Amino acid sequence: MGELDVAALLGEIAGIGRDARRGGYSRHVFDEHEARLRAWFTGHAARLGLTVAPDGNGNLWAWWGDPGPGAVLTGSHLDSVPGGGAYDGPLGVASALAAVSRLRAAGEQPPRPLAVVAFAEEEGSRFGRACLGSRLAAGQADPVAVREYRDAAGVTFADAARAAGIDPAGLGPVPWAAQAACFVELHVEQGRALAGLGQPVAIATTILAHGRWTLAFTGQGNHAGTTAMAGRRDPAAAAARTVLAARDLALAADPAPDDNSKMRGGAVHGHAAPGHAVPGRAVAARATVGQAELIPGGANVIASRATLSLDCRAHDDAALAALVAAIAGAAEQSATAEGCTFTMSQASLSPLVVFDAALRDTVAALLPDAPLLATGAGHDAGILAALIPTAMLFVRNPSGVSHAPDEGASDEDCRAGVGALTTVLRHLLAGGRAGPRPAEPR
Ligand code: GLV
Ligand code: MN
Ligand code: MN
Questions:
Q1: For residues 219 and 190, what is the distance between their CA atoms, to the nearest angstrom?
Q2: How close is the Cα of 123 to the center of ligand 2, in Å?
Q3: Residues 29 and 161 both lie in one domain
Q4: Position 201 in a domain
Q5: Which CATH number is 10's domain given?
Q6: Is residue 441 over pLDDT 80?
């Protein structure tokens, strides 16, 4: 079996799940497009001589060696956001397959098992909970609750899984996730830092604390023509005030990128000197309303209810809690001002992730030119980081855009990513530890 080329692999799936209305790709867990991606993954893994073993959560595990403790894990996810880019997720899966093909072609015979994993529902685009497959595998999601999660059409997770050939009775922790030696996820960069640094690959340091909430405003449904403006109880107006308040509160707390180094004495990106503070722990506050629904949704009807999604992120757990509390307060005030009531519920919460320092230093020593980069994007690696040493590699994205069709990476950079991942996996499979990277001149 020869080596797989990552650009060719991505080319094979470039036609799957294109979204003509939104642009980009819409590939959601257990839908027909994701099923084709699963078949693509399974076919390549089998041809590489790997044994594909789905877990009970919809994640696919392709094993080189016998499944068991001490494994090196690598991979990412195949699902997308609505109208997402081609690289967020599939790049990590395709790169893992390509790296394994290189190692196998080189005749490596690792003393420990390796698994390439494709996690299910990383984006949470169908059932609303980010990193659902890895959370279930890691024992961080309650299977009983997850079975009852519903998509926008009212289909439960259990029914969607069953329709995809997965028995929802099998949902729950996967022992080999907790017993693995480490997880390395390669991902397209979701900002423009590498373009400015002139490097194709970076190493992750931290992930912002983040979570999702649902905000609901209830008013009085009524006739658009016969109801005077004064005294309306219009939840659309309360929701609109809240969207702006959330934006303003986060904006006030989120420094312009160039100001971060001044605020904390640490660059947003940079090289780690062993024993020094992790770079990238800059002040950050983000609030995004990406979904809004007015019920009943008639053009000539004052809504009776409005719901908003709220995605909030910040540089640590306390800052996130403070931002969310401030937005909740503003929403309450907005509701009162419009004669409405307000409720809020949390869909998911992911604390700040600081990736394992020893593994980060090992990877940094193996890839001496790769800068260290913090990220505001969530990843399955962030979930596994609570269980086992975890690292991430980022591949340069010249547009800096992600979760949108303009996301990109050159073939050359993708191949550089595979080269970096291969180096790291080879080292970890051998059970080796590199020394820390020499300190950067200051
Ligand atoms: C996933 O990419 C997220 O950050 O929400
Ligand atoms: Mn994403
Ligand atoms: Mn991703």
A1: 39
A2: 6
A3: yes
A4: yes
A5: 3.40.630.10
A6: no
Residues 148 and 106 in one domain: yes
Nearest CA to ligand 1 atom 5: 378
Q: How many helices (H) and strands (E) does the chain have?
A: 14, 17
Say how many C-beta atoms besides its own lie within 10 A of residue 270's C-beta: 19
Number of structural domains found in the chain: 2
Where residue 217 sits, what CATH number does that domain have?
3.30.70.360
Q: How far is CA 314 from the centre of its chain?
A: 15
Q: Could you tell me if the CB of 378 is within 6 A of ligand 1?
A: yes
Q: How confident is the model at residue 282 (pLDDT cuts 50, 70, 90)?
A: confident
Same domain flag for 174 and 26: yes
377 pocket-lining for ligand 1 (C-beta < 6 Å): yes
pTM of the entire structure?
Answer: 0.93
Please give the residue range of the domain that contains residue 343.
209-265+277-350
**Same domain, yes or no, for 194 and 148?**
yes
335 and 403 in a single domain? The answer is no
Residue 46 lies in a domain: yes
Same domain, 303 and 423: no
CA 286 to ligand 2 centroid distance, Å: 16
Same domain membership, residue 310 and residue 164: no
Cβ neighbours for 165, distance < 8 A, ≥ 6 positions apart: none
Bridge-based pairing state of the strands 390-395 and 301-302: unpaired
The ligand placed nearest to the CA atom of residue 290 is 1
Distance, CA of 116 to CA of 357 (rounded, Å): 23
Ligand 1, residue 123: give the atom nearest the CA.
Answer: 1
Q: Read off the pLDDT of residues 412-422 as tens digits, 9 standing for 90 and up.
A: 999 999 999 99
pLDDT for 425 beyond 50: yes
Cβ(130) to ligand 1 under 6 A? yes
CA separation for the pair 315, 284 (Å, rounded): 5
DSSP 34-78: HHHHHHHHHHHHHHTT-EEEE-TTS-EEEEES-S-TT-EEEEEE-
